[in-house]
Amino acid sequence: MIAVTFALPAESADFVRLLENPMLNSREGVESIRGRIHGQSVAVLHTGVGERSCCALTEPFLRRHQFEYLISAGFAGAVEEELRIGHLLLAENFSSPELLQSPRLDLGDEGLFLGKLVTVPEIVDSISERNRLAAKSGAAAVDMETEFIAAACAARGLPMLSLRAISDTRSEPFPAPPHVLFNIEKQRTDFVRLAFHLLSHPAAFGRLNAFRQRIAVARQSLTTALEKILRSSLI
Q: Comparing C-alpha atoms, which of 87, 135, 130 is closest to residue 111?
């Protein structure tokens, strides 16, 4: 069985629809979705956003299953200028060499980058903060979960591949302040807060709609890549 993790269903929706005979599995308070794709048995876990939720869910998920390897998938924010919406980043610093260097790993060259991913404690929005992170870490993109998933995999000797689709960039940032778009403490969008923001900032309606379209592009790019990986059987 192969594990595939995403932070949220907004990242996994297209991929989950590809699964044959999907079944919801719940154990120890952790829900996962099992199914098959291209003959491969797959378990999908939504880790939530950030360290606390990710660690609380990933640990028991890995403890109760025997996996061949894990793919840490989802969205990331670009700090490298060359990255655009829908581009894919294979994180060389978090991926196991046996997976990253597998001759069967062939995603095509268009829109695929090999580089460093850095995990941060909060959503990065401003251009100045993106520039600071790029200069300090040498990373191409940022997320909020991969470091913790990689640590859990390393503790079990489980090979991991880190694959992220770019959902926001310096030139195409979030349509509203991060705390308005997503409440990390509650692990959901506070729609009352979002509604007040939209009412007081009418121009944000257009930005939010454009952001939804960009998310759809990133999700489809990620799904296509995951399908190719699972078809190739890396190990």
A: 87
Distance of alpha carbon 144 from alpha carbon 121, whole angstroms: 6
> What's residue 45's pLDDT?
97
Task: State the average pLDDT over residues 57-81.
Answer: 93
Write b or e for each residue in 134-155: b if 16 or more Cβ atoms lie within 10 A of its Cβ, otherwise e: beeeebbbbbbbbbbbbebbee
Q: CA 85, CA 67: separation in Å to the nearest integer?
A: 31
Under the banding of pLDDT at 50, 70 and 90, the label for residue 108 is low
Q: What share of the chain is helix, strand, coil (3-state, %, to 5)?
A: 40, 25, 35
Is 153 in contact with 62 (CB distance < 8 Å)? yes
Smallest Cα–Cα separation from 233: which of 102, 48, 93?
102
Quote the pTM value. Answer: 0.93
Task: Report DSSP letters for 65-96, one per residue.
Answer: ---SEEEEEEEEEE-STT--TT-EEEETTTS-
Integer Cα distance of 215 and 10 in angstroms: 8
pLDDT per residue as tens digits for the range 175-191 = 888 888 888 888 888 88
| CB count in 10 Å sphere of residue 194 | 17
